[in-house]
Amino acid sequence: MGLSKNIRVFSMVLSCLGGCSSQEGPLYAPPEFGCERSGKFELLTGELPVGNVTDIWEYGPVLIVQGSGGGFLFHVFDKRSGEPLCGFVRNGRGPGEAVSLLNAHLGEDGVFTCYDYRARNVLTVHADSMLARGVAAVATERYEMPDCCRAIVPLGGKRLYMNRTVVKNEHTETISRLELKDAGNRVVSRYDTYPAVDREILLRIYGLPPFAVSPDGRRLAVGTLTGGILETFSLERGIEPLATRYLVEPHVSTGEAFAFDEREVNCFVDLFATRDRIYAPYDGELRVKEFFETPVERRPLQFHRIAVFDWDGHALERITTDWNIRAMCVGADGTIYAALYDNLSRVFLGRIVPSEGRRAFAPSIPHTVAPSVTRRRPLPPSEQEQSLRRSMRTIVRTPDTPVHWRQHPRSTPPTAWAGTTSPLWWKRQRR
Q1: Cα–Cα dist 223/93, whole Å
Q2: Of 289, 290, 292, 271, nearest in space to 280 by CA
Q3: Residues 142, 122: Cα–Cα separation, whole Å
Q4: Torsion sign (Cα): 176, 178, 180, 181
Q5: Interval 312-330 mean pLDDT
Q6: For residues 274 and 3, what is the distance between their CA atoms, to the nearest angstrom?
Q7: Are 81 and 378 in contact (CB under 8 A)?
Q8: Within 215-254, where are the H helices?
Q9: What is the DSSP letter of 275?
Q10: Mind listing the pLDDT tens digit for each residue in 54-68?
Q11: Angstrom distances, CA of residue 329 to CA of 76, 118, 247, 295, 417
């Protein structure tokens, strides 16, 4: 009797296990934010002559924007007034120039590093020296990297490699998705797992996913543009997963290259990390196909919400803004800076200043909606900043960088994507 009872119990356990194993993929659930706010952007500039904006950093009194325009790949603006100051890293094949960049990284020490994957070079700029002199001295060194590499992040004496290995072949079979290498280019840690398993989905969402590394280099966050999957990793003792959050199930079309599935939704277009928070221009609701079928003049805002997570992937706060956001960063005082775009794909710089008594948009007592941040007059610059601006203005008045930037031609998207507000067209053009 006891034996038969045990057999029945064992059979029930097996049935349960079999039922669990038959489930297809993880369970997706939209994030539930404990705090909701509204934020109104104050424009710092007019239309920028900078195309393909992919990143933005705050450093001291300036904002650094990555994007092509005026012969430069990086552009420096006064963060108070929005005044263009200079550009650095020319587009070309000469010394201190780059052809096609993987990504760029600004360390806490002020060392700005970017990798030219076509020329196989690493370029280094010391931001403090640039600000003091009003001109950037760019150091160029040869640097070999695998063809499947999509981003390299310097971490002290190590480097983190993010590779596109969703399809293994003879060139990638010995390379992992994430690799941590020492100064001698030896692999000290690997990670080769993807949270999604469908091949078509992997190809679409993990070609060049948005990512961010904390300022201290101890943590990594990776998101997805198509669908919403957020992964976090510890980099202290190698590459160790912290959490994976399945927010919105990714759906992709298996037909034409630029066709969209009826259920396809975009989530993360950019990530920015602090020591304890992850910030992301976020959508998660608007169906992509419906968006592109809507006339340009009537298209709704896209990526106009800023989602805030902790490093365990918990949703903390969502800020609803009045602009489409292409890239963003958070300043030391909690000010949010962003590259914004309108329905005509014109790009601007804007900011949201934290309310009185709030250093940053961090979790507090939850409430429904906070008052919109009003326009503020910029604080008067210090004597040091005034001297710095005078020295840097000379860079603007050169034949290569016109004073009237608004009159300079800007990059335009391919014809099929012209006039769209979505960053999809430029995302798909990047390597």
Answers
A1: 33
A2: 271
A3: 6
A4: positive
A5: 96
A6: 58
A7: yes
A8: none
A9: S
A10: 999 999 999 999 998
A11: 14, 28, 23, 31, 26
Pairing status of strand 101-106 against strand 111-116: antiparallel
Q: Residue 392 in contact with residue 81, Cβ under 8 Å?
A: no
Structure tokens at 276: 């304890």
Asked if residues 41 and 352 have their Cβ atoms less than 8 Å apart, the reply is yes
**Contact present, 397 and 319 (Cβ < 8 Å):** no
Q: What is the largest CA-CA distance in the chain?
A: 95
The reported pTM is: 0.77
- What is the distance between the alpha carbons of residues 347 and 47, in angstroms, rounded to a whole number? 6
Strand ranges in 235-332 using DSSP code E only, listed in sequence order: 240-248, 272-273, 278-282, 305-309, 315-320, 324-330
Place of tokens 């804007």: 350
Look at residue 272 and give its three-state secondary structure. Answer: strand
Alpha helix (H) ranges present in 85-152? 127-133
Collapsing DSSP to helix, strand or coil, 424 comes out as: helix
DSSP assignment string, 359-399: SSS---S--S-PPPPPP-PPPPPPHHHHHHHHHHHHHHSBT
One-letter amino acid at 377 equals R
Mean pLDDT of all residues in 97-105: 90
CATH of 25-378, one of 2.60.40.290, 3.40.30.10, 2.120.10.30, 3.90.1300.10: 2.120.10.30
| pLDDT above 50 for 233 | yes
CA dihedral of 317, 320, 324, 327, whole degrees rounded to 10: -20
Structure tokens at 124: 């280094």
3-state secondary structure of 291: helix
d(CA 67, CA 73): 5
Sign of CA dihedral 309, 50, 290, 40: positive
